[in-house]
Amino acid sequence: MAIPKGVMNKPVFMKLWENYPLFSKVILDVGIFLKYKTLKLTKIPSMITLPSRNVIYINNAENRGRALLISDGITQSRVTEFWGNAVESYKPTLVLDIGVNYGECIFSTKYDRDTTIVGIEANKYLIDYIDRSRQLHVNGNQIKIIHAFAGEHVKKDQAFFIDTHWSGTSSGVQISEKNSIEKTEVPAITVDSLFDKEALGDQRLLFKIDVEGYEFMVMKGMRKLLSNCHDVLGIVEFDSRYLEKAGVNLESYMNFLSEYFEIQFYDMDNQLKKLSSPSISELLKEFGAEHVHTDLIVSAKRSKDRDSRVLCMSQPY
Predict the structure, then answer these.
(1) How far apart, in whole angstroms, are the C-alpha atoms of residue 68 and residue 46?
(2) Whole-angstrom Cα distance, residue 136 to residue 117?
(3) Dihedral sign (CA 300, 305, 307, 309)
(4) pLDDT, tens digit, for every residue of 172-212?
(5) Which of 82, 99, 196, 291 is the most exposed place for a label (fewest CB within 10 A)?
(6) pLDDT above 50 for 308
(7) What pTM was computed for the model?
């Protein structure tokens, strides 16, 4: 008997974790025991070989690291599937992973040798694991990992709340009152501050943003890239509850996205659909719910003539 991998998918498990943390911890322990026949940390791996044969290092005592062990490194299947297909078909020259976590996205595939690859992660407890994975990656010398908080403004100190029990819910806003939350400070940067505007004209940008409600702030801090790169394609987590906790006006966010992008989203059946009207009411209607958790596929409007395979490359799971 084994725990179905679908239970480890981020949206499913996060609901369990938020509402039933003790039960969720039991599920993880059972999953680890079924897979490795032990709960002794010294006998549980701290490295995962991904389907691509690349590896990631994880903290085998931390719950999200354990979820990755149980699911063979894939808790966000549609993200990693989209990412691998995009790298192969779209051939990006500039890659950004904002909210790296353990790196199951950025390290999931192989890149062209001329690709510039940047990962940004604010959780100080993950940096060592990320760097160990980078060193073993075939494109390791091309990958730059930045320990910072990506947002709208450059600041010396930005409050960052680390969930020491589940790294995936660490955020710039305290989204939980659990005693596992540790407040830290980290430098804040804008993505635009990393790049020279004049060097962007020929770049094909591929990006991922997963920062637990701060996606809008990140994108406002990368307007230069969005406006000046030759082509832009990205996947962005959209969780209306986390966005609202971060103080985001959802309608303003949707208006911003529609200014720069054509927008697609994954529906309840994991089918990729075009958003007919760029409004939060339209998105809520599609899900028939008060809150929405999905991933948005966004592509620059100026790239309408791009091969349609790029926009529809992700398949339902």
Answers:
(1) 10
(2) 15
(3) positive
(4) 877 666 678 899 999 999 999 999 876 788 899 999 999 98
(5) 196
(6) no
(7) 0.90
Parallel, antiparallel or unpaired: strands 116-121 and 143-147: parallel
Percentage of the chain lying above the pLDDT 70 cut: 87
Q: Return the beta strands (E) in the chain as ranges.
A: 47-49, 55-57, 94-98, 116-121, 143-147, 149-150, 155-163, 181-189, 204-209, 231-239, 261-266, 272-274, 293-300
Q: Which CATH superfamily is domain 77-311 in?
A: Vaccinia Virus protein VP39 (3.40.50.150)
Per-domain residue ranges for the chain?
5-70, 77-311
Mean pLDDT of 147-159: 95
Residue 195: which of 254, 150, 139, 133 has the closest Cα?
150
Give 274-288 pLDDT, tens digit per residue. Answer: 988 888 999 999 998
Cβ proximity of 127 and 187 under 8 Å: no
Query: Tokens representing 123?
Result: 């959780």
